[in-house]
Design a protein that fits this description.
The chain is mainly α. It has 12 helices and 4 strands; from the N terminus they run ααααααααααααββββ. About 5% of the residues have low confidence.
């Protein structure tokens, strides 16, 4: 073969291909540079597979894939929290726009309908994202696991949180009929039906969640809610003492230290006492000094330092 034929049959076509690749790369870079910024609500990549469609075609690995979806749901929320700017209210995560949380959990429970951990996570976290989806995942869990009284407990909790007290009482009542359900379920059915959203009911719900759950996230959530209730009651008692002092002296105290003698006589729920640090300052449940708003003559948490949930 002559050099001319080699040039014609090999080198020239190769050069054309290289030039073509270069043109494609250049064009791609130009398009990427001019592409408009995608809004935050569209940043997440939609799921391409449905767990219900995968079931039966995963060659016995459905449980493994379900675990992957569940772990991905945990990482998904964790990443959202790490990337967020500013204060995040754990009782309202809508600002994070975690629109894929339910699809992840739905896929996990499609592949493994008896995945109690996935139902539990959804029932605890989804109310802060989308209450309708929270009910959907909890009801799905109950439908596939009718003998798991804890799922009725979580469903009752969601309804209670939404102030749908009749539905909550019904969920607790149905759960109480399961053979190994604790007496608490029957008691909660009556309590929710008669007392609704009272703090006593709230305490009972969260205490029981702490006592019976094996899920660290559930325990942490319940503990945080109990701390929030304790904090609210402390601040209400402090405000009452401030108003009492003002009515006697004619003006708001200059510092919270002035009303400590009054507070020492106040009885808090569960026999708790107010706390004072080494400097004699009135401190919240996390050990951070309370602040006094003299204009309103009310106490407030130091939002930058306290470790308590901010209501």
């Amino acid at each position: 073969m002559t050099h001319g034929r080699v040039l014609h049959r090999i080198i020239i076509p190769a050069a054309i291909i290289v030039a073509g690749f270069a043109a494609v790369i250049c064009l791609s870079n130009c398009i990427e540079a001019q592409r408009p910024r995608v809004a935050d609500e569209y940043v997440d990549t939609d799921l391409h597979f449905s767990g219900s469609r995968l079931k039966g075609f995963a060659l016995g690995t459905e449980g493994l894939i379900a675990d992957w979806y569940f772990m991905r749901s945990l990482q998904y929320i964790g990443d959202k929290l790490l990337k967020s700017d500013g204060f995040i209210d754990i009782m309202d995560l809508s600002s994070l726009n975690p629109r894929l949380l339910y699809p992840y959990l739905d896929n996990a429970t499609d592949l493994d309908p008896h995945f109690i951990g996935a139902y539990t996570y959804g029932a605890i976290v989804l109310p802060a994202v989308d209450p309708a989806k929270a009910i959907a995942i909890a009801e799905k869990g109950v439908a596939h696991n009718p003998n798991e009284w804890r799922l009725y407990q979580y469903l009752g909790y969601i309804y209670w949180k939404l102030e749908r007290y009749e539905d909550a009482a019904n969920a607790y009542e149905k759960g109480s009929l399961i053979p190994d359900a604790p007496p608490f379920m029957k008691l909660m059915a009556g309590s929710v039906a008669t007392e609704g959203g009272s703090r006593a009911t709230a305490r009972a719900i969260f205490r029981q969640m702490m006592e019976v759950s094996d899920d660290p996230m559930v325990k942490a959530t319940a503990q945080r809610r109990l701390q929030s209730l304790d904090s609210i009651e402390e601040r209400e008692a402090i405000d009452k003492a401030l108003q009492s002092s003002r009515s006697i002296k004619g003006n708001c105290p200059s510092s919270l230290a002035e009303i400590i003698p009054i507070l020492m006589k106040v009885g808090l729920p569960d026999g708790r006492d107010f706390s004072v640090d080494e400097s004699g300052r009135l401190v919240d449940l996390s050990g951070v000094p309370y602040l006094l708003d003299r204009d309103l003559c009310r106490v407030k948490l130091d939002v930058e330092k306290t470790k308590l949930p901010i209501e």
